[in-house]
Amino acid sequence: MYYYYVTPNLVNPLKKSKGFARFLVCYLELICCCNCTPKFPIFAALKKVLNRVAIHTLGCKLNFSESSTIVRQLETNGFARVDFEQEADIYIINTCSVTDNADKKCRTTVKAVLKQNPEAYVVVIGCYAQLKPKEISEIPGVDMVLGAAEKFNMIEHLHSLQKEEKAIIFNKNIKETQDFVPAFSYGDRTRSFLKVQDGCDYFCSFCTIPLARGKSRNASIAETVAKAKEVAATKVKEVVLTGVNIGDFGADQDYAETFYDLIVELDKIEGIDRYRISSIEPNLLSNEIIDFVAASDRFVPHFHIPLQSGDDEILTKMRRKYLSDLYVERIARIKKQMPDCCIGVDVIVGFPGETEEHFLTTYKFLNELDISYLHVFPYSERNNTTAKKMADKVTKAEKAERAQRLRILSEKKKRFFYESQLGKTMEVLWEEEKQGENMQGFSENYVRFEASYDANLVNTVQTLVFEEINESGLAKAAVKEHLQ
Asked: CATH 3.30.750.210 residue ranges in the chain?
């Protein structure tokens, strides 16, 4: 019997000599039986030398949940994950395409990774890859483009990956994307993003997401609960429910299951301290959902509710499923049941046909609402949308100016909300990421706290009294109690 030993002195030079490393792998496979080779330390070490993979995620929480799941699949199949800033053999870029800026970020990222390792393989997945595969394939350095369905067959595709003159494209018509693939993030952040729904049937006039992700679909409640129990078995303390249009949960099923039914079952799972609802459409945010969250010990008092415009004429042109009066009703119901609830709002400025009068209607509407912060997006023209064909385009300068006015309003709203919470006792979950010499954490109602970094506090909950707002506009507190 032959024995093979490996030392750092042997493996380290091989990282710089991929050709020789591949030769040794092939040689070992030839001289040893298939059942034996994986047992040899040198074989395993060489395989890892050749299979270092890094992933970079652009865009939403849903993308993060899918990226994390894809990486775990790769690790299970012999790939070694490295940080994106390190040298890897394969770089995966999970893209977004909500705005033009997301497309540009993809191009910039490809250039950056090729500087780290010019011989690396680059694979692009995500919404941008589904919408514009040919455009991506023409980016110098891209080797493979995987569409909405194919990204979950990553392992199969990577084993056949080779350097070619042109990038290989695997991209089906989005109508063929029928399956729901569950996902959750783990190990990347203190919180876990649990994918409960995918796709959208709404076709708002400005949005390409139905073309990038397909029709609304989800797993059953039983299957989703099973995934949540997998998360509960980890050290994660907070789960964020994510999807494209999570309130539409159950719409594609023949049997009656709703988002309300889902959260009722999730609330019963032991081992998860908190659930946070990432974003939900106002027309799907029912009274029973609001009342359930208000009564729950696990679902936190925080909603993010897209508005897009406070002017009914613009909402109609956007093909939204509600008018402003329904939005007012939703906010009033939340605040009646949960006075300390944090409410975030998405707004688009500069939609085609939006005059200064329309914008002022939106500004006044938001100013009078009892909300906590805004996410402001200048309208971005997208191919294959109804809005692109609309007349009366708003200039780039006007969009920037309106966005800035709303961002100032957002800071005022956030400050007012924080001041309303001063003196109150909160449970803060501290996050791992270091912010200079400090660390940050969030209360149940999404107040962001800051303190000197202490590794012992990461992923723990402290009961704190919100004492003051620091110079960065974040919460500063006195420790009342430390909870594990």
From this structure: 180-300
Mapped onto helix, strand or coil, the DSSP state of residue 202 is coil
Parts of the chain belonging to CATH 2.40.50: 425-483
Do 337 and 290 touch, CB atoms closer than 8 A?
yes
Q: What is the pTM of this model?
A: 0.87
In this prediction, residue 102 carries a pLDDT of 64
- Closest by alpha carbon to 151, among 67, 230, 83, 26? 67
What is the Cβ-side half-sphere exposure of residue 233, based on CA atoms within 13 angstroms? 7
Note whether 57 and 18 are within 8 A (CB). Answer: no
Other C-beta atoms lying within 10 Å of the C-beta of residue 151: 23
Quote the strand ranges of 167-320, DSSP E.
168-170, 183-184, 191-195, 238-242, 274-277, 302-308
Question: Do 102 and 144 touch, CB atoms closer than 8 A?
Answer: no
d(CA 439, CA 453): 5
Cβ-contact 305, 345 below 8 angstroms:
yes
Question: Poorest-confidence range of 145-154, 333-342, 385-394, 416-425?
Answer: 145-154
pLDDT in tens, 47-85: 445 589 999 998 888 999 999 999 999 999 889 999 998
> How many C-beta neighbours within 10 Å does residue 430 have?
22
* Distance, CA of 317 to CA of 314 (rounded, Å): 5
CA 431 to chain centre: 17
| 468 contacts 422 by C-beta, under 8 angstroms | yes
Nearest CA-CA partner of 432 in 240, 183, 238: 238
Read off the pLDDT of each residue in 250-257 and give the average, rounded to a whole number: 81
Domain 425-483 belongs to what topology? OB fold (Dihydrolipoamide Acetyltransferase, E2P) (2.40.50)
Say whether pLDDT at 42 is over 80. Answer: no
What does the block give as tokens for 199?
Answer: 């796709």
Q: Coil, helix or strand for 251?
A: coil
pLDDT of the residue at 5: 37
Q: How far apart are CA 275 and CA 239, in angstroms?
A: 5
- List Cα–Cα distances, 262 to 10, 287, 304, 341, in angstroms: 53, 15, 18, 21
Q: Among 23-32, 133-142, 286-295, 297-306, name the one with the lowest average pLDDT.
A: 23-32
> What span, in angstroms and rounded, lies between the C-alpha atoms of 351 and 433?
36
Q: In 379-458, which ranges are E strands?
A: 425-435, 438-442, 448-452
Q: Does CATH number 3.40.50.280 belong to domain 51-175?
A: yes
Rounded to whole angstroms, how far apart are CA atoms 344 and 374?
Answer: 6
* Per-residue model confidence (pLDDT) at position 6: 39
* Domain 180-300 -> CATH class: alpha beta
